[in-house]
Amino acid sequence: MSVQPTYFADIAPIAFKGPDSTDELSYRFYDKDRVVMGKRMEDHLRFAVCFWHTFSWNGLDIFGAPTFGRPWLAGAMDSKAAAWKRAEGFDFIKKLGVPFYCFHDVDVMAMASNAAEHTQYLAEAVDDLERLQGETGVKLLWGTANLFSHPRFAAGGATNPNPEVFAFGAMQVRQALDATKRLGGSNYVLWGGREGYETILNTNLKKELDQLGRFLNLVVEHKHKIGFNGTILIEPKPHEPTKHQYDFDTATVYGFLKAYGLENEVKVNIEANHATLAGHTFEHELAMANALGIFGSIDANRGDHQNGWDTDQFPNSVEEMTLAMLEVFRAGGFKDGGFNFDSKVRRQSIDAADLFYGHVGAIDVIAKGLLNAAALIEDGRLDALKKERYAGWDSAIGQTVAKGSLADIADLVVEKDLNPKPSSGRQERLENLINRFCS
After folding, report:
1. Residue 1 has what pLDDT?
2. How many other C-beta atoms lie within 10 A of the C-beta of residue 415?
3. pLDDT score of 277
4. I need a surface site. Which of 91, 125, 238, 412 has the fewest CB within 10 A?
């Protein structure tokens, strides 16, 4: 179904106009063709717009009614409304000038009441998405299935005590993964929004973990069966909506993958706001993923330090994005992943232009972070100071400690009369160095 988009008609395509631009709907730092450390900026960052927050959320929250007057959201989400949403979405992405989008199955299709309708409406959506991709050149960064919003998933999808719910979730994931392959997606994401529990009193923990491990193995098997060459990703989150999530953070996910033989098959999609909810920094989660060999992709957003939940605001800290981009560089950059804006405008930001303001500002913040991180790496002092801190491991004593037995190491201490003294971590100097490049 082809629909002519009109909602963003009054907004011109966003252009790069340089750091001195006073046009608030222009890019000051995101110059997609600028070469940074041997690669185009667009290829470093691989920006994507998400369908759920940007085009599907109506402004509803737990305390109040919807506030957004997006015309395609009025009434039932039938095939016509879903086609309208897809058309407006691609018009927005094209005007924003980013290369990718992301979606859940239910974000882009008519509302289904049973499995047959789900299959029919998703097929309609995929046909239309394929056409829109061809017309605009916009590509799919990743697809996924929503196994958390419908009431049937109140007790989880893969971890549900009811095998029929497990089966329905498997049907959705199979169809969404098939769709992602057909649309040329670079990744497939699983976010276990309700894969956890609210009380141990009614929970068989071992059974639920085994179910989740089996479910993920089934997904990986199907990936290989259909010849999908993209990456399977898990998105960690510590809590909310469940009290105890099985995918708490990157380290927890890695332990789960190891337990079920999946550490070489699955990587992580790290969200900034989820990192802070877990008590970590964004850069910590990125560094941990790199250290464990499971860095995949990023959901770009931020939380509010005065709120204890996932506010999904657009990133606006150049310092935070500079530290994040340092870790992306250290991981070798994105292979299949990118920066997906899992971000939403505030309920009071009701104008069409507000969607552009949110994305344009965030894109520039990340682009500036990229430039800062590249400058820090080229400057060399940050890496040199870190290398100096661990230089002792390259000495003769360091090599003995690294390779010797416990007895060898203990004898070395006595033989050499080792009496090590503490050395400065130079934290303040390093923080000052970061600030020099972020100012």
Report:
1. 66
2. 8
3. 94
4. 412
Reported pTM:
0.97
Contact by Cβ (8 Å): 298, 340: yes
Give me the long-range contacts of 149-157 (CB less than 8 A, separation at least 24): 149/106, 149/193, 153/193, 153/194, 154/194, 155/194, 156/192, 156/194, 156/195, 156/196, 156/197, 156/208, 156/242, 157/192, 157/194, 157/195, 157/215
Average pLDDT, the chain: 97
Whether the CB-CB separation of 337 and 269 falls below 8 Å is answered with yes
Cα separation, 157 vs 168, in Å, equals: 8
Q: How far is CA 97 from the centre of its chain?
A: 20
Q: Give how far Cα 408 sits from Cα of 188, 315, 399, 401, Å.
A: 48, 51, 12, 8
Q: Output the six-digit token pair for 322.
A: 């500079």
Q: How far apart are CA 226 and CA 178, in angstroms?
A: 8
The H or E element containing residue 49 is strand 47-50
The average pLDDT across 323-332 equals 98
- Pick left, alpha or beta for residue 351 (phi over 0 → left; psi -120 to 50 → alpha; otherwise beta): beta
Please name the amino acid found at residue 345.
V
Provide the annotated active-site residues: 104, 107
Question: What are the distances in angstroms from CA 189 to CA 93, 140, 340, 377, 427?
Answer: 21, 12, 12, 31, 36
For residue 156, give the nearest of 168, 164, 147 by alpha carbon.
147
- Provide the 3-class DSSP secondary structure of residue 27: strand
- The residues that bridge with 118 in the sheet, in sequence order, are none
Residue type, 95: K
Cα 36 to Cα 131: distance, rounded to the nearest angstrom: 33
Which residue reads 């305390």 in tokens?
Answer: 63
Length of the chain: 439
d(CA 229, CA 140): 14
Overall average pLDDT of the 306-334 stretch: 95
Mean pLDDT within 156-165: 98
Q: Which of these, 52, 40, 435, lies nearest to 235 by C-alpha position?
A: 52
Q: Which amino acid is at 230?
A: G
Q: Where are the beta strands (DSSP E) in 30-84?
A: 35-36, 39-40, 47-50
Q: Is 332 helix (H, G, I), strand (E, B) or coil?
A: coil
Partners of residue 313 on adjacent β-strands = 302
Residue 362: which region, alpha, beta or left (left: phi > 0; alpha: psi -120 to 50)? alpha
Is 378 in contact with 329 (CB distance < 8 Å)? Answer: no
The CA distance from 372 to 132, in Å, is 35
